[in-house]
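Hi there,

I know you've been waiting on this one. I reran it after we fixed the sequence typo, so this is the corrected version. Both the input and the resulting structure follow.
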Amino acid sequence: MRLLRMRLEHFAGIDGPLDVDFAEQGITLIEGPNETGKSSIVDALRLVRDFKASSQAAEVRAVRPTHVQADPSVEIELRTGPYHLTYAKTFARKGTTQLTVHAPVAESLTGDAAHDRATAIFAETTDLALWSALQATQGEPLAQPVLAALVPLHSALASIGGEDAVGGHDELMQRVEAEYLTYYTPTGRPTGEHARLAGELAEAEARASEAEGALADIARLAESHERLVLRREELTGSIVTQRKEVTTLTERCAELDQLRQELQEAQRIAEGAGQTLAIRQEAAERRAQLVAELDEADRARREAELEQAEAATAVEEHEAQAGPEDPDTAIDAARAELDRATVEQERARAQRELEQALRRLGEARAAHTAREEARAALRDNAVDEEAVQRLQDDHLRWQTAAARSAAAAPTVTLERLGDQPVLLDGQESEVHEHPVVRPVVVEVPGAARVTISPPAPLADEVAEGDRLRREYHRACEALGVADLEEARTLARLRSEQERILADSTAELRRALGEDESLAQLEERVEHCRERVGAGEPPDPETAAQRHRTAADAYQRVVNAAEESRAERRRAFEVGQQLRERRARAGTAAEHVCARAERAVAALAADRAQADDATVAAAVEEAREASTRAIAAVARVEGVLSERGADELASEVDARTDALETAERRLRELDNEIIAVEATLEVRGGEGLQDAANRAAEAVADLRRRWISVDTRARAARRLQQTLTDHAHRARRRYVGPFRTAIAELGRTVFGSGFDVEIGEDLSILTRTLDGRTVPFVSLSGGAKEQLGVLGRVATARLVGGDGAPVILDDILGYADPLRRQRVLAMLRQVAREGQVQIIVLTCEPSRFDLLVPDVSRRLE
């Protein structure tokens, strides 16, 4: 394909018609500043080719002009294959399309028919992927072209090797790929009918398995019914036998009931005899206890009388001993001396505190006077820094407005030329320059009067200045000052008074100390005078020494008194203990005597009812009766034991429980049999066998259909893999010729030591220069850009006249001058061969001074 001409109008930043002619063979250089429409040429080629005129796609909306109401239009003239045509579009909601085919057969179409015909011609004659790959667009100069899927390049490389191109079998590959994708996804998973039948087969097999499971359940229920019936028959026979055994055992137990009654009567008699024996033994033990208590009471009475006599003797001996003297007299004398010394010491201490309080009182009065004077000054002066700041802001606004008015006002210059006086606003003036911000009267008395008024627009500014001036003077009056300077002076005075107030307040607080007010400090002074009292106060050191001496003497007397008191307390405590012992001994003797009297009375009363011999005989008689009753019980128990009465009763209970368990299990078996029979009756009418047969038939049919589709799918996958492997092998064979084409052009740019490594996708993997190999990703920006240009030009050169133009938009921005010169020489060399159309777009013509294009066009 070869571009011949292009016309753009209202396209992006292009307003009027822009006509560009291209060299059909060779190089076209289009230069111009940024935003003059160079990149729009590339965009226009893509939009006119890919989008309908009525398209509202974002790419189409992006080229609409924003500064004028107009629709973008594109017209191109080109040759492609056997066709020579002119193709034009105006993009709008009701856009227009026109196609004129000049050769080989004249055609003229409009609208969608024109778009469809042009699309068909491009598809027939031009590989659109190749068209895009040969464009190095602005903003992407470092990217390599994507060449792996370019059919024209594959054909050219295959022809060099004398083989069929992989691209020559594209239709077959596409059909095989389409057939493969009928059965599998691109990742190899089953899809379409293949996946659907597999799923349906799995579902059918699940249903068949479910039906077979239902039949198996019915069979298991039938077997369970048989087992339950057999178990019921066995359990029924066992219950009959158990009932007979329980009846026999019950009859045997009835025979032993008479013996059990005799045993109960014998046990009742034995229990009564035991109780009688216990009562008589308790009476005998109570008689023995009374005798023992009487003996113990006599012994305790004798011991208590002896203890009472010993305690009385000890008290008499202790009271006969003399105790220590009373120390209170010596303590009183020492205390009186200490009190007198304390008074003297306190007077000395009060004198010292009085002197300190008088000094603090003087300082406090001075600070209080300074504080009150500062407060009075602050009350008389209300101008603080904040008020000055507000007044300063008002003054600044007034002066700014006045200056702005004066700057905008015209100026009147007066000069008296004779002896006649000249008055300006009634005042005589010799030479005066005066801004006219309000009406000014110039008068020559008796000759002329001229009134000059400011321009009308200035009146508002003058009025605003007057208003701000009045606000400023009102603020001064409110503060009681004449101007801003006086306010600043008063503010400084107020700051000084505030400092004096703070300092005097701190000094007063320090002088007052713990006292909260001056009056309290004065009270403290008077209190200290009262404590000092009349007369000359003593010397502090002498008073302190006297106090220490009196305190030591008092402490010695107190210590001695404490020892004396301790001795007296110990003697008193011993006497108290002895008296308490005597009292306790007397009380104990009284208690013991009383207890002995009660023991004598109790024993006498008990013997009055029965003497000791009678009590002993009654105990022996009760013991013999209890022995006879116990023997009778043992005899009857022996008979019952011989006949196995206990084991027989346990066996009857066990057999009865077993019979009840068997009867309960029989009822449960009856319920289970009824439930199984009901289930069999219901499930038997559901047609489970027919359902199982239908499910098996469905599985067989689906399996047959799936096997058929799976066989075709496997064949398609095998064929697709075979052709893909063949294509990969063929592409690997293209690497050599393409590397040779790149190296041939690259040596013009990089020198004889240049070589490259090409990957299977025909991308440049590494560059070797003078024996040093560097991966493409590690190359500099300039080297990457130059290799990208080499790849596009080599591709266009291999494809030849059946290809598309190479479009280079603002390239070589990363190249040094020498490398740029060599790239231009390579382009010129390829252009002279006449097989490649090259279009260069640039905003820097100086880069391409050595290019020598066949057609040059400058955009303004």
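Quick highlight: Residues 660 and 701 are 59 Å apart (CA to CA).

Best,
R. S.
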